[in-house]
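Margin note: ligand = adenosine monophosphate.
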Amino acid sequence: MGAYEDVFRASVADREGFWLEAAQALEWETPPTRALDDANPPFYRWFPDGRLNVAHNALDRHVAAGRGDQAALIYDSPVTGTQRTYTYARLTDEVATFAGVLRAEGVGVGDRVVIYMPMVPEAVVAMLACARLGAVHSVVFGGFAANELAVRIEDATPKVVVSASCGIEGKRVIEYKPLLDKAIALSSHKPDSQVILQRPQAEAAMGATDVDWAEAVAKATPADPVPVKSTDPLYVLYTSGTTGKPKGVVRDGGGYATALAWSMPHVYDVGPGQTIFTASDVGWVVGHSYIVYAPLLAGATTVLYEGKPVGTPDAGQFWRVCAEHGVRALFTAPTAFRALKKEDPNGEYATQYDLSGLKYLFLAGERLDPETYRWALDLLDIPVIDHWWQTETGWPIVADPAGIELLPIKPGSPTRPLPGWDIQVLDANGRQVPPDTDGAIVAKLPLPPGAFPTLWNDDERFVSSYMSAFPGYYLTGDGGRIDSDGYVFVMGRTDDVINVAGHRLSTGGMEEVLASHPAVAECAVIGVADQMKGQVPRGFVVLKAGADPDPDELRAELVQMVRDRIGAVASLKDVAVVAALPKTRSGKILRKTMRGIADGLDEPVPSTIENVDVLDDLRSVLRKG
Ligand code: COA
Ligand code: AMP
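Resulting structure:
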């Protein structure tokens, strides 16, 4: 039996013992005596009697252990020409001071703080400062528009919002403050104050309840870490569901910190003093877990990169960062590699840098297509590790565990489930399917530490969205299969969620925007395959009787509406006017059939279709697109 099998079996044979031992990697104010509270399924709680402070574990603990001079965070920003290294001692001080700022603004245990910031160190400082106070942060990705920010402010009811005057998107400066002001105006909940980091690229106009970051820090008294219950929320991270209303994924402190601390040596093979570069964004779960919390909990060094894989200014930046900062593990989304491949097909930039320290490439966020896998492997000649996870799970579900044993790779599969994950594939009736048969991928409850215990203020939606399709199982929303060697193949979402350039978006949310146009009677948005972004959304609208807008103007208006209300990141560039949408006799839009046609598949026409004639119209629209 291999090392992976041994570890996996140990986690099944004695779940309590396995996770209690993993929890010992942390410093607890009150160490847990029990691993799992399973009294109220499907609401499981990890380490119910433990108390800790996650920021203390990420920072102060390492300073106390004598590692204060080691680099904790390296900020590398080609878009501003800045590089800055924060040692553990400095980061601890800055976090303690900013926690003092938040405390002075009235933030205490359990209060929410919304963070709407670009990829600057202050975003990490703000997150950890919340954790230090036992407050709950909710980071909103900078690419979302005011309306999306407003929805999150409304739901999280923050006491304070922390933001910056601007972000830098390639060569463009994006002013954040007007978006924040608009979001607060739209939301019925008003925060008490906004702490604004002024950046020189665009200074923000300040209002009566705005607080200048630098001024507040200059007069703040540092705050000590506040131990809280393991089960208390550390953060809420909103993610796209099937409707326009995002789901507030709740993360507890103790279970999450335990899972992340376990994952660093076992999955990523990165330990104290070693460097991980996660090229994502703090607005996504990958950023929360592997830019911020996991590297710092492990005493490693994390790189915070403000830039893109290409164009800021060239396709050599990832390799420059890896070489300059001695990166051991690079983690990004396959789409970033497709962008690199397009710009630099022969990988010439990579040959200009010393990449001898780079030991692993980890990819996640969308399916890793075998072609991109092979290109990355040929280029780097190191293990290219596809791993599958979700905002809900907080850490990988299925991965090649580099720090335990590298399992043989089958391109197209992220390999096998990690300890704690009992992954199965079920048919529509909830029966396990034989190997190599497609179905719904589910995880048998309880989920391991780190996975979400519920949705923010919405236990009911937690149960209805995830736990009721197959009682006793978590419905991942992904479809796929498991082969006879236990390898999991994740083929794509079975719901209205799409992955655009590694960004998770809701087609339902885009449909709500299109449907609000006065000329639109009904609409559908589907994700279609895209060579670069994996998927992109395409919209189809049917006009109201009597509406006769100029088609080009209408299309431009609809595209702009989605950009204004959801954000540029939605990438909806293409909306077609069609005579009708294909529907079942009961009136359900046949989105799967539409997707199949768009992707050029030989999609069977369902017998339940009412208006088969519209498919020809649709085929010709899609061919033109
Ligand atoms: N703030 C404001 N706008 C943003 C933004 C942000 N933080 N992030 C993206 N946008 C904008 C982009 O500028 C772009 O605007 P445009 O339509 O005016 O050009 C739009 O949103 C779409 O962005 P994106 O889909 O990211 O496309 P891109 O062409 O700018 O970049 C890649 C393509 C592949 C380079 C980029 O998507 C990438 O690096 N992806 C990696 C994804 C990732 O890290 N995912 C996290 C999971 S690991
Ligand atoms: P997010 O919640 O933004 O992390 O997106 C989660 C979704 O991304 C999953 O449900 C999958 O559809 C997709 N995903 C993430 N990682 C992978 C992967 N390695 N292979 C296939 N799909 C993935």
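The pocket of coenzyme A (ligand 1) is lined by residues 142-143, 167, 169, 174, 280-281, 284, 286, 308-310, 332-333, 335-336, 339, 364-365, 500-503, 533, 568-569, 571 (CB under 6 Å).
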